[in-house]
């Protein structure tokens, strides 16, 4: 999914390619983004 998004494919193209609806693609994008965000170490505001 991320590879397709990095290629700037439209969501309706992703949906058709994966044989799912655009709502499902949006959910996948949201879920993947949340999973990736959890992997980012917390920032230290004193590092400026």
From TrEMBL:
Name all Transposase Helix-turn-helix domain ranges. Answer: 2-41
What the entry lists under InterPro entries is as follows:
Transposase_HTH_dom
A Pfam family of this chain: HTH_Tnp_4
Q: What's the protein here called?
A: Transposase family protein
| Source organism of the structure | Nocardiopsis coralli
- Tell me the organism's taxonomic lineage: Bacteria, Bacillati, Actinomycetota, Actinomycetes, Streptosporangiales
């Amino acid at each position: 999914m991320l590879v397709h998004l990095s290629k700037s494919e439209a969501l309706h193209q992703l949906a058709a390619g994966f044989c799912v609806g655009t709502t499902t693609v949006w959910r996948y994008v949201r879920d993947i983004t949340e999973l990736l965000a959890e992997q980012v170490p917390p920032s230290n505001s004193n590092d400026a």
